[in-house]
Amino acid sequence: MLVKMFHGFCMALADSVPGVSGGTVAFILGFYEKFIDALHGLFGKDNGARKVAVLYLAKLGVGWCLGLCLSVVALNDLFQTKTYFLSSLFLGLTAAAFPFILRTEWWALKGKGRYLPYTLLGVALVCGLSLVRGAASGGGVIDYWSLGVGELLYLFVAGALAIMAMVLPGISGSTLLLIFGVYAPTLYALRRLLALDLAVLPGLFALALGVLVGVGVSIRWIRAALRRNRAKMLYFILGLMAGSLYAIVMGPTTLSPPQQALHLETFHLGGFVLGVGILIGLERLKLLIARREARAEKTEDGTQGEEEAQSGGSPQGPA
């Protein structure tokens, strides 16, 4: 229970910042396939699988909600006052994820260089979205206290695309929200909701509805693609990650008022190193959890063996 809550907590921290997605963290910590299967079971037709999925996702969800609340409270002010420090940290998180995924999935990538165009496609997709953001949003900034039908629809689409990114290892859903110019306004709206400002509910509901629809539409496709065309998907994911580096650099331009994009003079080495350290820490934590689980299984197997030996080699005892 506590391990699953911790997994959800880590996913929320990743989902709430541009850079590494919650899916990438699940990938690094080793529970991504189980997470995807649970989401698939939730939207599937098997009632038994749905019950198992609900129980598993509920445990993850408790930790995720705790992590999200902590992130919203901390990031809302930091993103306005420490913009370039956070942008550098996000770059560190994203850059550090490359060697982890390459090492874990090298068996699927090795000898498949012919799929490199999928990486270029991923880069082009994210960079293209960044370039057209101004035109897509009408050049304005989302105001959760003054939303028309067009803005509500825009939030719905942003939510649907963001959750697809959060589920897929590679690009963070928050990176997409950053590209669409709704990341900082959404952080502030969530902060105000925690303060019981209900005026932001329509916009957050539109975003949440998009998230729900996005999960329902995308999860089966993502699960099938990773199982049938894993190499192609991994090359595409690496492209999304590479493209998100550009999106993070341009992130400050989406603020209100807009700030200059991150460049060498505003780059914060300490923030970058901290981002790398966080990913290394997660990898070490994964190894620690795996060792403890292995020891627990070994102890359990040894205890069962002793019980069987004492009962004459049968769990029911001698006949």
Automatic annotation (TrEMBL):
Specify whether Transmembrane is a keyword of the entry. Answer: yes
Which domain of life does the protein's organism represent?
Bacteria
Pfam family for this entry, one: VCA0040-like
Key words, A-Z = Membrane, Transmembrane, Transmembrane helix
**Region: Disordered, residue numbers:** 296-319
- What stretches pass through the bilayer? 6-32, 53-73, 85-103, 115-132, 144-168, 175-194, 200-222, 234-255, 267-285
Concerning InterPro entries, the annotation shows: VCA0040-like
Q: What is this protein called?
A: DUF368 domain-containing protein
